[in-house]
Amino acid sequence: EEGTGDTLEVGYLLEARSALRREQQRLSVAHELTDEAIAIYRRHRELHLLGRAFVEKGKTYAVAHDLEAAIHWLRKGLGLLDPTRERRFELGARLDLMFCLLECGRAQEAGFLLRASRSEFGAHAGELLGLRFRWLEGKIDQPLGEHDHAEQALSEARQGFMERGLGFDAAGASLDLAGLYA
Question: Which residues contact 130 (CB under 8 A, 6 or more apart)?
Fold first, then answer.
């Protein structure tokens, strides 16, 4: 309850609580908590942490299906993140941005960002983020008319998820694959 008294630690805890509330679908509370963290990070001029909070705000808008607001906040956050501090967080935020762009019908823009990000994901993503990147690659290729490549990417992602026991993600990739076949 007392904590360390470190204000930045309070900001981090607010971010964590915000993410929990987002998962609980308590989105207005999630926004309020993120706004409190943003105020702390601004006072301390912690740009990277401010970027993290902006990304969290973007994720909350994405859950609320306000994709234009999500894109705005994700871009704003990505512009402030120092990728050398938290490489996978930055890559995850980029993946979220590409997904939102795709869901808004902006597949070409998402595809451009995906191609520009491929080498960084290959070098730094790790297994799970790499599989999610491959899944998104298949989802982006489909509306761009790259059906063979989409099938390959979705199949590889599905297989990778199944091998790791990630049934929910495997089911999602399977549904996308079924949509491609349909």
Answer: 121, 122
